[in-house]
Amino acid sequence: MSTVTGPDAGGGSPRPVMSAGAGEPGRGDGEGQAGSDGNSHRGRKTRAGVFLAAAAGVLVVAAGRAGLVDPDMVKAGSAVVDVGINRTDAGLVGDVDPGAAEVAAFMTPVPGGVGPMTIALLLRNAVRCASYRRGNLPFPTL
To answer: Full-prediction pTM beyond 0.70?
Structure first.
């Protein structure tokens, strides 16, 4: 699933503008219809995707294709989280073209961006689960 965020109507905090996942209605590209696995457009630029990416205040990219997001697709002053990691002849690169860092206010590096944080949180959750299982921590209730 990918989500593009933008300002709400009152100019306040960001809200989801587009959330695209398999079988979701209203995707506008025909991919969300019954019988579609939602993956046939993966790694391709679409007009709607370019437009929504360029309007996003926070852009999270996890497409699995090196350099898919060009600098012209990034809103000036936005925050870009590049989750993708791709092995190329030039080494490890993300899904966002490195030139986008000149346009965005913040951009996670690849490698070394979200990967270490993901590993740290997974390890924290594993330790927490072990503590629940051993009875060292009370299991949270809803």
So the answer is: no
